[in-house]
Amino acid sequence: QVQLVESGGGLVQPGGSLRLSCAASGSIFGVNAMGWYRQAPGNQRDLVAQITSGGRTDYADSVKGRFTISRDNAKNTVYLQMNILKPEDTAVYYCNLKQRGVLGNYDYWGQGTQVTVSS
Question: Model confidence over 80-105: pLDDT tens digits?
Fold first, then answer.
């Protein structure tokens, strides 16, 4: 089992910045990728950014140039630096870990953290 604990969400003005953190614990092995998804009310949960075990990063077009995903392997933690935030970035952000296990592949999810961008 893997547990993901998120922090860093909150209320910020348009143009501001937030940094989300996601700390993984438990049976951490065979990690294919870690990343962030977001879901606004009535919408699907969509990929925001991810970083693979090889260090490749992928971003949604809507956040390219504004968001940066990074990791600290020693701390089993992934971060999402969000700059120049817009009201449309408002959503619940979920940390995700994709694990390659003996019996198959598994997705683990954090509890979600609310990001609200508003004046």
Answer: 999 999 999 999 999 999 998 888 88
